Amino acid sequence: MQDETFEEAAQRECREEIGISPDSVIHLAEFYPNPGRSDWAAHVFFCTSHSEAAKIEDDPSEVVHKRVFTIKDVDRMIDRGEIVDPSLLITWHTAKRRGLI
């Protein structure tokens, strides 16, 4: 949305997509998913605590289903190649390096 910060956008997306309201978000990284071909940077955030919020489903093409995994489960899924999304991998490894996970 126009005139919102990246942090505000991250919080809004959490409410819209998975129905949580982060108490705060931590900016982990900015990266270019397709350097040299696109000027769009991706910004990834980490949330340490949240409350439940009413899920807003205003765009059926962006429906995301929340699932909960343990840290060990996610590590195993990454090791087995089951998680291949670059944004998730960058977020996960950056958060671990910073001691957030």
CATH topology: Nucleoside Triphosphate Pyrophosphohydrolase
Q: What is the CATH class?
A: Alpha Beta
> Major sheet, described briefly?
2 strands, antiparallel
Examine the secondary-structure arrangement and name the CATH architecture: Alpha-Beta Complex
The amount of beta strand, in percent, is: 15-25%
Number of DSSP helical runs: 3
CATH superfamily: Nucleoside Triphosphate Pyrophosphohydrolase
Give the overall silhouette: globular
Q: Give the averaged pLDDT, no decimals.
A: 89
Count the strands? 4
Task: Spell out the helices and strands N to C.
Answer: HEEEEHH
- The count of domains is 1
What can you tell me about this protein's structure?
The chain has 101 residues and is of the alpha+beta class. The protein has a single domain, classed as Nucleoside Triphosphate Pyrophosphohydrolase (Alpha-Beta Complex). Helix content is 34%, strand content 17%. The termini are far apart.
Mind sketching the topology for me?
Elements: H1 6-18, E1 20-22, E2 26-31, E3 42-46, E4 50-52, H2 71-79, H3 86-97
Antiparallel strand pairs: 1-4, 2-3
